[in-house]
Amino acid sequence: MLTVNNVTDIKDMARGAVLLGTGGGGDPYVGQLFLQAQIKAGRYPKVIASETIADDAFVLSIAGIGAPTVIVEHLVSDKTLLRLLARAEAFYGRRVDALISAEMGGANSMFPLALSAISGIPVLDADGIGRAVPHIEMTTFSINGCKATPCIVMDDSGNVAVIEAVDDRAAEDLCRSITAAMGALTFGALYPMSGAQAKAFAVQGTLMQTLEIGRAIRTAREGGRDIFADLLDVLGSRDDRAARILFDGKIVDVVHDTRDGWHFGHARIAGIGDSTDECIVEFQNELTVARVNGRTVTIVPDLITMLDRETGEPLTAEMLAYGQRVKVLGYAADAMLRSAQSLEVLGPRMFGLNEDFQPMEELA
Protein backbone atom coordinates (compact mmCIF):
# COMPACT_ATOMS: atom_id res chain seq x y z
CA MET A 1 0.00 0.00 0.00
CA LEU A 2 1.15 3.52 -0.77
CA THR A 3 0.00 6.37 1.43
CA VAL A 4 0.48 9.56 -0.56
CA ASN A 5 1.62 11.91 2.22
CA ASN A 6 3.68 14.58 0.50
CA VAL A 7 3.08 17.27 -2.09
CA THR A 8 6.01 16.16 -4.28
CA ASP A 9 4.41 12.77 -4.92
CA ILE A 10 1.09 14.41 -5.76
CA LYS A 11 2.78 16.68 -8.30
CA ASP A 12 4.69 13.75 -9.78
CA MET A 13 1.51 11.67 -10.09
CA ALA A 14 -0.33 14.56 -11.73
CA ARG A 15 2.54 15.02 -14.20
CA GLY A 16 2.57 11.32 -15.06
CA ALA A 17 -1.21 11.26 -15.42
CA VAL A 18 -1.09 14.07 -17.97
CA LEU A 19 1.40 12.05 -20.03
CA LEU A 20 -0.74 8.89 -19.93
CA GLY A 21 -3.81 11.03 -20.53
CA THR A 22 -2.60 11.70 -24.10
CA GLY A 23 -3.80 15.29 -24.01
CA GLY A 24 -7.19 14.54 -22.41
CA GLY A 25 -8.69 13.59 -19.07
CA GLY A 26 -8.70 17.20 -17.91
CA ASP A 27 -6.07 19.50 -16.46
CA PRO A 28 -4.84 18.02 -13.15
CA TYR A 29 -4.08 21.37 -11.55
CA VAL A 30 -7.43 21.81 -9.79
CA GLY A 31 -7.37 18.27 -8.39
CA GLN A 32 -3.72 18.68 -7.47
CA LEU A 33 -4.47 21.81 -5.45
CA PHE A 34 -7.28 20.01 -3.63
CA LEU A 35 -5.01 17.10 -2.75
CA GLN A 36 -2.24 19.41 -1.56
CA ALA A 37 -4.72 21.04 0.80
CA GLN A 38 -5.81 17.62 2.12
CA ILE A 39 -2.22 16.57 2.76
CA LYS A 40 -1.53 19.78 4.65
CA ALA A 41 -4.60 18.98 6.78
CA GLY A 42 -3.28 15.48 7.50
CA ARG A 43 -5.67 13.59 5.20
CA TYR A 44 -3.87 11.24 2.81
CA PRO A 45 -5.08 9.18 -0.14
CA LYS A 46 -4.18 5.49 -0.09
CA VAL A 47 -3.30 3.38 -3.12
CA ILE A 48 -3.52 -0.43 -2.94
CA ALA A 49 -2.89 -3.27 -5.39
CA SER A 50 -6.00 -4.88 -6.87
CA GLU A 51 -4.82 -8.31 -5.74
CA THR A 52 -5.17 -7.28 -2.09
CA ILE A 53 -8.97 -6.91 -2.18
CA ALA A 54 -11.52 -9.70 -1.87
CA ASP A 55 -13.24 -11.02 -4.98
CA ASP A 56 -16.61 -9.96 -3.56
CA ALA A 57 -15.45 -6.43 -2.65
CA PHE A 58 -17.52 -3.57 -4.07
CA VAL A 59 -15.48 -1.31 -6.35
CA LEU A 60 -16.74 1.93 -7.87
CA SER A 61 -15.31 4.46 -10.30
CA ILE A 62 -15.52 8.21 -9.68
CA ALA A 63 -14.93 10.44 -12.70
CA GLY A 64 -15.49 13.93 -13.99
CA ILE A 65 -17.66 14.11 -17.10
CA GLY A 66 -17.47 17.06 -19.49
CA ALA A 67 -15.20 18.95 -21.86
CA PRO A 68 -11.66 19.40 -20.49
CA THR A 69 -11.87 23.11 -21.31
CA VAL A 70 -14.73 23.39 -18.80
CA ILE A 71 -13.31 21.13 -16.09
CA VAL A 72 -10.31 23.41 -15.61
CA GLU A 73 -12.63 26.30 -14.68
CA HIS A 74 -14.08 24.47 -11.64
CA LEU A 75 -12.72 23.86 -8.19
CA VAL A 76 -13.07 20.41 -6.61
CA SER A 77 -15.70 20.40 -3.87
CA ASP A 78 -15.30 17.98 -0.98
CA LYS A 79 -19.02 18.38 -0.29
CA THR A 80 -19.90 17.28 -3.83
CA LEU A 81 -17.59 14.27 -3.69
CA LEU A 82 -18.89 13.15 -0.29
CA ARG A 83 -22.51 13.70 -1.37
CA LEU A 84 -21.89 11.61 -4.46
CA LEU A 85 -20.32 8.82 -2.38
CA ALA A 86 -23.20 8.82 0.12
CA ARG A 87 -25.79 8.81 -2.67
CA ALA A 88 -23.98 5.96 -4.43
CA GLU A 89 -23.76 3.79 -1.31
CA ALA A 90 -27.45 4.37 -0.61
CA PHE A 91 -28.38 3.58 -4.21
CA TYR A 92 -26.27 0.43 -4.56
CA GLY A 93 -27.15 -0.69 -1.04
CA ARG A 94 -23.64 -1.38 0.19
CA ARG A 95 -20.45 0.29 1.34
CA VAL A 96 -17.80 1.05 -1.28
CA ASP A 97 -14.67 -0.99 -0.45
CA ALA A 98 -12.36 0.54 -3.03
CA LEU A 99 -12.33 3.25 -5.68
CA ILE A 100 -10.89 2.92 -9.18
CA SER A 101 -10.14 5.42 -11.92
CA ALA A 102 -12.15 5.04 -15.10
CA GLU A 103 -9.16 6.31 -17.07
CA MET A 104 -5.67 7.70 -16.61
CA GLY A 105 -6.03 11.40 -17.32
CA GLY A 106 -4.87 14.59 -15.73
CA ALA A 107 -8.04 15.27 -13.75
CA ASN A 108 -9.71 11.87 -13.74
CA SER A 109 -6.77 10.23 -12.00
CA MET A 110 -6.90 12.96 -9.32
CA PHE A 111 -10.61 12.77 -8.45
CA PRO A 112 -10.55 9.22 -6.93
CA LEU A 113 -7.43 10.19 -4.96
CA ALA A 114 -9.25 13.30 -3.73
CA LEU A 115 -12.22 11.24 -2.54
CA SER A 116 -9.85 8.73 -0.93
CA ALA A 117 -8.23 11.51 1.08
CA ILE A 118 -11.51 12.76 2.54
CA SER A 119 -13.30 9.40 2.90
CA GLY A 120 -10.53 6.98 3.83
CA ILE A 121 -11.53 4.56 1.04
CA PRO A 122 -8.46 3.26 -0.83
CA VAL A 123 -7.89 3.63 -4.57
CA LEU A 124 -6.83 0.62 -6.63
CA ASP A 125 -3.54 0.85 -8.50
CA ALA A 126 -5.38 0.31 -11.78
CA ASP A 127 -7.84 1.90 -14.18
CA GLY A 128 -10.14 1.13 -17.06
CA ILE A 129 -7.93 1.96 -20.03
CA GLY A 130 -4.33 2.90 -19.14
CA ARG A 131 -4.79 6.24 -20.91
CA ALA A 132 -7.67 8.70 -21.43
CA VAL A 133 -10.51 8.31 -23.93
CA PRO A 134 -13.48 10.53 -24.86
CA HIS A 135 -16.33 8.00 -24.51
CA ILE A 136 -17.64 6.02 -21.53
CA GLU A 137 -17.85 2.77 -23.53
CA MET A 138 -14.17 2.98 -24.50
CA THR A 139 -12.83 1.14 -21.46
CA THR A 140 -11.57 -2.36 -20.76
CA PHE A 141 -14.38 -2.57 -18.19
CA SER A 142 -17.04 -2.04 -20.81
CA ILE A 143 -15.31 -4.13 -23.47
CA ASN A 144 -15.27 -7.10 -21.07
CA GLY A 145 -18.94 -6.76 -20.13
CA CYS A 146 -18.72 -4.72 -16.92
CA LYS A 147 -21.37 -2.08 -17.59
CA ALA A 148 -21.03 1.60 -16.70
CA THR A 149 -24.63 1.73 -15.46
CA PRO A 150 -26.60 1.98 -13.31
CA CYS A 151 -24.68 5.14 -12.54
CA ILE A 152 -25.24 8.39 -10.69
CA VAL A 153 -24.41 11.80 -12.12
CA MET A 154 -24.27 14.90 -9.87
CA ASP A 155 -23.30 18.54 -10.25
CA ASP A 156 -22.00 21.00 -7.66
CA SER A 157 -25.50 22.40 -7.11
CA GLY A 158 -26.76 19.03 -5.91
CA ASN A 159 -28.74 18.08 -9.01
CA VAL A 160 -28.71 14.30 -9.40
CA ALA A 161 -29.59 11.94 -12.23
CA VAL A 162 -29.66 8.15 -12.07
CA ILE A 163 -29.00 6.51 -15.43
CA GLU A 164 -29.78 2.95 -16.45
CA ALA A 165 -28.89 2.34 -20.08
CA VAL A 166 -29.29 -0.63 -22.39
CA ASP A 167 -25.59 -0.44 -23.27
CA ASP A 168 -22.59 1.78 -22.58
CA ARG A 169 -22.83 3.62 -25.89
CA ALA A 170 -26.31 4.74 -24.84
CA ALA A 171 -24.91 5.56 -21.39
CA GLU A 172 -22.35 7.84 -23.04
CA ASP A 173 -25.06 9.72 -24.94
CA LEU A 174 -27.28 10.06 -21.87
CA CYS A 175 -24.44 11.18 -19.57
CA ARG A 176 -23.24 13.67 -22.16
CA SER A 177 -26.72 15.18 -22.60
CA ILE A 178 -27.35 15.40 -18.87
CA THR A 179 -23.91 16.91 -18.29
CA ALA A 180 -24.62 19.58 -20.93
CA ALA A 181 -27.84 20.45 -19.10
CA MET A 182 -25.94 20.68 -15.78
CA GLY A 183 -23.45 23.25 -17.02
CA ALA A 184 -21.05 20.99 -18.98
CA LEU A 185 -19.42 19.45 -15.87
CA THR A 186 -20.63 16.68 -13.59
CA PHE A 187 -19.15 13.99 -11.38
CA GLY A 188 -20.20 10.41 -12.00
CA ALA A 189 -20.24 7.26 -9.87
CA LEU A 190 -20.14 4.53 -12.47
CA TYR A 191 -18.88 1.06 -13.39
CA PRO A 192 -20.06 -0.73 -10.22
CA MET A 193 -18.00 -3.92 -10.13
CA SER A 194 -16.72 -6.69 -7.92
CA GLY A 195 -13.16 -7.11 -6.77
CA ALA A 196 -12.85 -10.09 -9.12
CA GLN A 197 -13.89 -7.94 -12.08
CA ALA A 198 -11.43 -5.21 -11.13
CA LYS A 199 -8.62 -7.78 -11.05
CA ALA A 200 -9.59 -9.31 -14.39
CA PHE A 201 -10.65 -6.32 -16.48
CA ALA A 202 -8.62 -3.30 -15.31
CA VAL A 203 -5.24 -2.22 -16.64
CA GLN A 204 -3.06 -2.81 -13.59
CA GLY A 205 -0.31 -0.70 -12.04
CA THR A 206 -1.20 2.57 -13.72
CA LEU A 207 -1.38 4.86 -10.68
CA MET A 208 2.10 3.82 -9.60
CA GLN A 209 3.19 4.31 -13.20
CA THR A 210 2.08 7.95 -13.04
CA LEU A 211 4.35 8.38 -10.02
CA GLU A 212 7.28 6.73 -11.81
CA ILE A 213 6.82 8.88 -14.91
CA GLY A 214 6.41 12.15 -13.05
CA ARG A 215 9.36 11.40 -10.79
CA ALA A 216 11.60 10.50 -13.76
CA ILE A 217 10.87 13.82 -15.48
CA ARG A 218 11.38 15.84 -12.29
CA THR A 219 14.58 14.17 -11.12
CA ALA A 220 16.17 14.29 -14.59
CA ARG A 221 15.40 17.99 -14.78
CA GLU A 222 16.75 18.67 -11.30
CA GLY A 223 19.88 16.61 -11.97
CA GLY A 224 20.62 18.19 -15.32
CA ARG A 225 20.22 14.86 -17.14
CA ASP A 226 18.56 14.19 -20.49
CA ILE A 227 14.88 14.29 -19.52
CA PHE A 228 13.66 12.39 -22.54
CA ALA A 229 16.28 9.64 -22.30
CA ASP A 230 15.29 8.99 -18.66
CA LEU A 231 11.60 9.11 -19.57
CA LEU A 232 11.97 6.62 -22.41
CA ASP A 233 13.86 4.29 -20.08
CA VAL A 234 10.99 4.35 -17.57
CA LEU A 235 8.31 3.84 -20.22
CA GLY A 236 10.21 1.04 -21.91
CA SER A 237 10.63 -0.85 -18.64
CA ARG A 238 6.90 -1.71 -18.57
CA ASP A 239 6.19 -4.96 -20.43
CA ASP A 240 8.68 -3.96 -23.14
CA ARG A 241 6.15 -1.49 -24.54
CA ALA A 242 7.69 0.61 -27.30
CA ALA A 243 8.22 4.32 -26.66
CA ARG A 244 9.94 6.87 -28.88
CA ILE A 245 10.06 10.54 -29.77
CA LEU A 246 8.03 10.98 -32.94
CA PHE A 247 8.86 14.62 -33.69
CA ASP A 248 10.73 17.62 -32.34
CA GLY A 249 9.57 21.08 -33.34
CA LYS A 250 7.58 24.26 -32.86
CA ILE A 251 3.80 24.64 -33.03
CA VAL A 252 3.06 26.95 -35.96
CA ASP A 253 -0.70 26.53 -36.08
CA VAL A 254 -3.29 25.20 -33.65
CA VAL A 255 -7.09 24.99 -33.83
CA HIS A 256 -9.32 24.50 -30.76
CA ASP A 257 -13.06 23.88 -31.04
CA THR A 258 -15.28 22.91 -28.10
CA ARG A 259 -18.58 21.47 -29.30
CA ASP A 260 -21.06 18.79 -28.27
CA GLY A 261 -19.17 18.35 -24.99
CA TRP A 262 -15.82 17.55 -26.62
CA HIS A 263 -12.66 19.42 -27.44
CA PHE A 264 -11.71 19.00 -31.11
CA GLY A 265 -8.77 20.37 -33.05
CA HIS A 266 -5.29 19.86 -34.42
CA ALA A 267 -1.77 21.21 -34.05
CA ARG A 268 0.70 21.69 -36.88
CA ILE A 269 4.35 21.45 -35.83
CA ALA A 270 7.31 22.57 -37.93
CA GLY A 271 10.74 21.02 -37.61
CA ILE A 272 13.49 22.81 -35.71
CA GLY A 273 16.07 24.93 -37.54
CA ASP A 274 16.46 24.25 -41.25
CA SER A 275 14.25 21.16 -41.17
CA THR A 276 11.39 21.18 -43.68
CA ASP A 277 9.60 18.29 -41.93
CA GLU A 278 6.13 18.82 -40.51
CA CYS A 279 4.01 16.94 -38.01
CA ILE A 280 0.23 17.25 -37.65
CA VAL A 281 -1.45 15.91 -34.52
CA GLU A 282 -5.25 15.66 -34.35
CA PHE A 283 -7.27 15.49 -31.14
CA GLN A 284 -10.77 14.77 -29.84
CA ASN A 285 -10.19 15.51 -26.15
CA GLU A 286 -7.18 13.17 -26.52
CA LEU A 287 -4.50 13.14 -29.19
CA THR A 288 -5.67 10.56 -31.72
CA VAL A 289 -3.18 10.49 -34.60
CA ALA A 290 0.26 11.88 -35.40
CA ARG A 291 1.40 12.20 -39.01
CA VAL A 292 4.87 13.25 -40.12
CA ASN A 293 5.04 14.60 -43.67
CA GLY A 294 1.62 13.08 -44.28
CA ARG A 295 2.57 9.58 -43.06
CA THR A 296 0.91 8.14 -39.94
CA VAL A 297 3.50 7.40 -37.24
CA THR A 298 1.20 6.64 -34.28
CA ILE A 299 -2.56 6.22 -34.02
CA VAL A 300 -5.12 5.32 -31.33
CA PRO A 301 -5.29 3.30 -29.18
CA ASP A 302 -1.49 3.74 -28.96
CA LEU A 303 -0.65 6.82 -26.88
CA ILE A 304 0.45 10.19 -28.26
CA THR A 305 1.59 12.95 -25.92
CA MET A 306 3.18 16.35 -26.40
CA LEU A 307 5.81 17.59 -23.95
CA ASP A 308 7.59 20.90 -23.54
CA ARG A 309 10.97 20.29 -25.16
CA GLU A 310 12.86 22.23 -22.47
CA THR A 311 11.18 21.16 -19.23
CA GLY A 312 9.68 17.81 -20.22
CA GLU A 313 6.29 18.83 -18.84
CA PRO A 314 3.45 16.93 -20.57
CA LEU A 315 0.77 19.16 -22.09
CA THR A 316 -2.98 18.65 -22.27
CA ALA A 317 -4.61 19.35 -25.63
CA GLU A 318 -6.22 22.56 -24.37
CA MET A 319 -2.77 23.87 -23.34
CA LEU A 320 -1.39 23.71 -26.89
CA ALA A 321 -0.62 27.16 -28.29
CA TYR A 322 1.20 28.82 -31.16
CA GLY A 323 4.94 29.14 -30.65
CA GLN A 324 5.37 26.32 -28.13
CA ARG A 325 8.45 24.17 -28.69
CA VAL A 326 7.45 20.56 -28.12
CA LYS A 327 8.43 16.96 -28.51
CA VAL A 328 5.77 14.50 -29.65
CA LEU A 329 5.97 11.16 -27.85
CA GLY A 330 4.53 7.85 -29.01
CA TYR A 331 3.95 5.04 -26.50
CA ALA A 332 2.53 1.60 -27.26
CA ALA A 333 -0.80 0.87 -25.60
CA ASP A 334 -1.24 -1.93 -23.09
CA ALA A 335 -1.78 -5.27 -24.85
CA MET A 336 -5.41 -5.35 -23.63
CA LEU A 337 -6.17 -2.33 -25.83
CA ARG A 338 -4.68 -3.88 -28.95
CA SER A 339 -6.84 -7.04 -29.00
CA ALA A 340 -9.30 -7.50 -31.86
CA GLN A 341 -12.18 -7.19 -29.37
CA SER A 342 -10.86 -3.89 -28.02
CA LEU A 343 -10.15 -2.43 -31.46
CA GLU A 344 -13.83 -2.80 -32.34
CA VAL A 345 -14.42 -0.09 -29.72
CA LEU A 346 -11.05 1.71 -29.56
CA GLY A 347 -9.87 1.52 -33.17
CA PRO A 348 -9.18 4.65 -35.25
CA ARG A 349 -12.46 4.47 -37.15
CA MET A 350 -14.36 4.89 -33.88
CA PHE A 351 -12.69 8.32 -33.66
CA GLY A 352 -13.70 9.28 -37.19
CA LEU A 353 -10.29 8.46 -38.67
CA ASN A 354 -10.35 6.78 -42.07
CA GLU A 355 -7.67 4.16 -41.45
CA ASP A 356 -7.13 1.01 -39.47
CA PHE A 357 -4.92 0.54 -36.45
CA GLN A 358 -1.28 -0.34 -36.92
CA PRO A 359 1.07 -0.76 -33.95
CA MET A 360 3.52 2.11 -33.70
CA GLU A 361 6.42 -0.37 -33.91
CA GLU A 362 5.30 -1.19 -37.48
CA LEU A 363 4.99 2.49 -38.41
CA ALA A 364 8.57 3.42 -37.49
Automatic annotation (TrEMBL):
Highest taxon above the source species: Bacteria
S-Me-THD N-terminal domain: residues covered: 8-164
SUPFAM superfamilies, alphabetized: CV3147-like (SSF160991)
Gene3D superfamilies: CV3147-like (2.40.390.10), CV3147-like domain (3.40.1610.10)
Domain S-Me-THD-like C-terminal, residue spans: 167-360
One Pfam family from the record: S-Me-THD_N
Listed InterPro entries: S-Me-THD-like_C (IPR048350), S-Me-THD_C_sf (IPR024071), S-Me-THD_N (IPR010318), S-Me-THD_N_sf (IPR027479)
Name this polypeptide is given: DUF917 domain-containing protein
Taxonomic source organism: Sphingomonas colocasiae
